[in-house]
Amino acid sequence: MLVLLAGIFVVHIATVIMLFVSTIAHVWMVSSFDSETISTGLWLLCNKTCSQLQVSSNDEASLKAVQAFMILSIIFSLVALILFIIQLFTLEKGKRFYMTGAIMLVCWMCILIAVSIYTARFAGKMVYGTNPHHGYCFILAWICFCFSFIIGILYLVLRKK
User: Fold this and answer.
1) How far apart are CA 42 and CA 73, in angstroms?
2) Tell me: the pLDDT tens digits for 5-44?
3) Domain limits, the chain
4) Within a 13 Å sphere around the CA of 6, how many CA atoms are in the beta-carbon half?
């Protein structure tokens, strides 16, 4: 049981770190222009130097929603981690981690909304270069989506013994 708790804890910490990286870094979409790599994130457009990401007025609300939901997913994931540690020491024997699991599933839903909006509005529509493809931050966000769902379900099922 201790090994399972430690494994869930390690995966949860890895998920939080990957959420931070995928939200902060600027490699959601990558393309090339005149043999130079151009990458865009949620905030910046980087070529040799980084500048503010310019989006059309039609896509601005979508980008703000993606930014907000990714930040919310980080917050909910951190709250779930802190709550798990608190419940680990205060929860009675035989009780389940319902609150931690519920908060982690809310984090999962925030990631789903953010990445879905980004996929629908911005994937493959990079006007700054040719041959656009997804960067590692986009892939990390989908990995965090999977991990947060698995962790949320495990917290709901897991009993403290």
Assistant:
1) 14
2) 889 999 999 999 999 999 999 888 888 777 788 888 888 8
3) 1-28+57-121+136-156
4) 3
